[in-house]
Here is the input.
Amino acid sequence: MGNEKEYIAIFDSHRELIDKPCARLLNTERAKALEIFKSSGFPGPKEENWLHTNVAKRFATDYGMNLGRVMAETGSHDIFICDVPNLNTHKAYIVNDSFRAADNKGKSLPQGVILDSLNEIAKKNPTLLEPYYNRLAGDGDSIAQFNTTFTQDGIVLYIPKNTTVEETIQIVALLQSNVEMMSNRRLLIILEENSKASLLLCDHSSLQKQTLSTQVTEIFIGRGASLDMYEVEETALTNTRLGHIFVHQDRDSRFKHSNITLTNGFTRNYVEVRLEGEGAETSINGLAIGDKKQHIDNRTIVDHKVSHCTSNELYKYILDEESTGVFAGRMLIRPGAQHSVSEQTNRNLCLTSCAHMYAQPQLEIYADDVKCSHGSTVGQLDENALFYMQQRGVPADEARHLLMYAFAGEVIEHIGIEALRDRLHMLVEKRFRGELNRCKGCNLCK
Amino acid sequence: MKKKNSLLKKLANKAYEFGFVSKIKTDIIETGLNEDTVRLISEKKNEPEWLLEFRLQAYRHWLTLDMPTWAHLEIPSIDYQAISYYADPLKKNKENKNKEIDPELMKTFEKLGIPLEERLALSGTAVDAVMDSVSVKTTFKEELKEKGIIFCSMSEAIQEYPDLVRQYLGTVVNYRDNFYAALNTAVFSDGSFVYIPKGVRCPMELSTYFRINAANTGQFERTLIVADDDSYVSYLEGCTAPMRDENQLHAAIVEIVVMENAEVKYSTVQNWYPGDAEGKGGVYNFVTKRGDCRGRNSKLSWTQVETGSAITWKYPSCILRGDNSQGEFYSVALTNNYQQADTGTKMIHLGKNTRSTIISKGISAGKSQNSYRGLVRVSKNADGARNYSQCDSLLLGDKCGAHTFPYMDIHNNSAIVEHEATTSKISEDQLFYCNQRGIGTEEAIGLIVNGYAKEVLNKLPMEFAIEAQKLLSVSLEGAVG
Here is the structure.
């Protein structure tokens, strides 16, 4: 046990302050999670799932926690417009860990759709959220329990039966603070039968102070429903991001997830997809571009609980300078989950001798009539291709960029929204050229 | 369906061929493990002081360790105090103080197909036969000695070549390496020692045959192979145990040192008693095998066919220290009934332009669990390292499990590392094709599985390949319904 004791002490002495502004649902689950966290503590560096990501150390900084729910000074939408050209989105913000409505210029979501503060909805309509809140993250690791213990707000997105949200919903998570700060935010996404939505999550922080955010996202995709979810991280070297996504998929549902880490400090993304209904399909993809001392850890579990489900996974890393990449993908086919099709690919480029890559693709299979495969490679850019391009007058640097761009392109191509795809192509290219990759119109970057 | 059932029945009734017990008078020490046990073993073997000290260090370290739990195995708790750590089947002839081999013991090995009389032996194979804790006999020793090759039991080597043993023992597998390595170092009893001098190509296959006979004992053998510059040796290992209801422990260490331009080929056909169809009994096989390619251009190749043992925990590894050194790992692991296997390899690339190949074929049937676990580590200075890994799993039946856990730790940007794995069941199309042409289902499965494992079986020396092929089809008979 290390510094978890300090956090438990903080919790115990401020319990009233934490509980007071929150809905009963959040507080009940908080009590359960606290007990689990107390017994488990932060994961140690020798734990199999945390071998290359020493997370306990990240909690050692003396972070400020906004337990008293003091609102940040300005509305984030005034200073920040995360604009994707040619893409109209319906926006909402999470500043630190509080929900902040955005000015959507009179546009409204289809009837019955809720995009609001998790805490407020849990107060107003607890029966809506009760069957869902912490139902998946309740079995999560100790960091997920830590989040449940400290979280006070977040966003809930609820889409009722047979509803299609045409416009992409964009959630921008922002960190604003003058001191070292921690935020524990929570997202709850519920898609009822035959509903459909696409969601873009942007994680931004350009603070020079040490920051840490834990983010637990629980997603329930009902029968025949479909969710496309894209996450883009553009934070600073001083940031620690510990993201958890838990997905429950019903019969014939579809889930597509792309996680793009463009700039970051220390990131761990955990994605757990539980395929609970026959015919469910899932596709999870990731692209990580690292340099300096960035650390990017992606861990995924696709749990085929029933038969006739399909899963695809593609993760790519480009590691430069002294960056570290960790990938662990586990495909679990439970007994009786016959006719499962599962494919996993992990490809990594190491550009310097100081860049480290740890890859662990895993297959765990308990049914025989399945088609499962994984492939993983670590290598460099093809010398012959570089030479070929130089022969034809393409400068060496340009040739390298072209090849890296093409390498990254495969993941970006999985993104279903054309405008976002173009935007990411542009951002990735800029990233390779070392240019600022902030969004146009962002006051922080101007 | 009827046919399938009858096939399954046949499998259930299939007896383990080597499950007999030999009635041999055996000197067994009392069960339990403490410092006195370690001293007693050392005393019985008349060991020098340094070795006793080495054992005691390991024992004290072992006391601080817990059994590893990270493998995908369900290991029932083992009472280390209920095991006897030394069993000697040789009776001493007091008059001439020489050890004489019990004729019953000779018969046992004959029954196992390992004749200990040189005139009966297959030409081209020298054998060191180890029963329980003691090496029974080593054949062709004299012929090998003419070439300067040392091939003898570990106890003999400790007496006759103490300097050589001391120079290399424990340098590849340190007693601090893991729980079972510490245990083995504390109580190891016998095993083989091989030294191939500079520039010598060993003219015959060297082989060790391990047999557990006595009840309530464990086997803790230790093998050390040193191949000096420009030498070559091919080494084979086989093992069997009687059928017993209780589990028996086998925790061995194999250390291999490969010097400049030398090559060692190490092949294993592991056929310890796997337990009965209900999962009762069987050997726990917890083995640490590692080779150190110390010289430039050295090569180490592991080939293993794993069909036995109730639980297998085994990762033959290569430390590729010398520049241009090469490591290979070819494995077929078959589990049936309630067997569990967590096996694979470690390829540690330290030198420049080092290469490694991993081919692993897992076959699971019945209610067994079969895992591949392998590490490829390319260190910072290992420029130009290359690895290719392929791990395939075949599932026969819907109650078994096949798992793949590869680890890749890459710290060098010039490394090229590839891993691929597939899991599937026997192709219905292939079976249908064979059936169509009048080949019965069982035979067809044998054909397909042997084809599937061919890449690995081809790496085995001739006699072993035949044995392994037979073993595979025996273990598989009727396994597919």
